[in-house]
Design a protein that fits this description.
- This protein is of the alpha/beta class.
- It has eight helices and seven strands; from the N terminus they run βαβαβαβαβααβααβ.
- α4 links the parallel β4 and β5.
- The protein starts with 6 loop residues before the first strand and ends in a 6-residue tail after the last strand.
- Bound molecules: NADP nicotinamide-adenine-dinucleotide phosphate.
- The site of NADP nicotinamide-adenine-dinucleotide phosphate has 30 residues, from α1 and β2.
Length: 243
């Protein structure tokens, strides 16, 4: 699980799951580019918690310029070894009421952003002849979820991207995997009603929601040499919810 001397980017590393991942990678020795969209103070707090070993970088991964800026920040630190595509958004609605904008915004950020970051990482990792990419998807991308057609489709797209890229890049020693959380206690689910949460707990064999700290060690494992022969996998970290 050692990442000493390695440089990592965590998109959306300022809060929630991304924050826990950034801290786990940093504590394992990596220098971490902590990306955020709006909340600079939160991103800087993560860097501070890592003793300043990293950099908070504002960038909207839903845009080409944002992705370029983020990759350039890793270049300045000396290259890119680990990329965690974690930033994601929701804009829930039933399909009959979903607007084009709600569909497109979620696809551009979750799927488009992950695609552009992966593409940008390729040349950089090929130069180093190694690399690990971990895409944060969702159980919703494997099973669908009412009210989340855009979100589920965006995560399913990333699962397809993950498997394809693993096949394209295996011979170059670049591994690409995905982690699929179920329900995780973060700001993203702050608007979900108590009734829905109570119903969700009933179908989770472990009978509790995840904390971000339940997800981060699995990402650290996939980033580290301990998973040197693991690629193209989607690992559900969901308390058994998808079984
Ligand atoms: P969160 O608490 O809402 O945090 C989102 C993070 O992404 C923040 O750091 C935010 O930055 C950043 N972000 C949002 N839009 C961005 C953009 N366009 N460009 C760059 N950064 C952006 O989310 P979370 O619950 O930790 O979710 C993290 C990932 O896990 C997402 O991909 C989500 O789909 C997935 N996931 C979550 C759950 C869950 O139950 N929470 C379940 C399954 C999968 P700011 O702080 O600056 O806004």
């Amino acid at each position: 699980m050692e990442l000493e001397g390695q440089i990592a980017i965590v998109t959306g590393g300022s809060r929630g799951i991304g924050r826990a991942i950034a801290l786990a990678l940093g504590r394992a020795g990596a220098t971490v580019v902590v990306n955020y969209a709006r909340n600079e103070a939160a991103a800087q707090a993560v860097v501070d918690e890592l003793g300043g070993k990293g950099k908070a970088v504002q960038a909207d991964i839903g845009t080409a310029e944002g992705c370029e800026a983020l990759l350039a920040a890793a270049d300045e630190l000396g290259g890119l070894d680990v990329l965690v595509n974690n930033a994601g958004i929701t804009a829930d609605n039933l399909v009959v009421r979903m607007t084009d904008d709600e569909w497109q915004r979620v696809m551009d950020t979750n799927a488009g952003g992950t695609f552009r970051m992966c593409r940008g990482a390729m040349n950089r990792m090929m130069r180093k002849r190694k690399g690990s990419i971990i895409n944060i998807v969702s159980v919703a991308g494997m099973r669908g979820n009412p009210g989340q057609a855009n979100y589920s489709a965006s995560k399913a797209a990333v699962i397809g991207l993950t498997r394809t890229l693993a096949k394209e890049m295996g011979k170059r020693n670049i591994r690409v995997n995905a982690v699929a959380p179920g329900f995780v206690q973060t700001d993203m689910i702050a608007g979900v009603s108590d009734t829905v949460i109570a119903e969700a707990k009933k179908v989770i064999p472990m009978r509790r929601l995840a904390q971000p700290e339940d997800i981060a060690p699995v990402v650290l494992f996939l980033a580290s040499p301990g998973s040197a022969y693991v690629t193209g996998q989607v690992i559900a970290v969901d308390g058994g919810m998808s079984v």
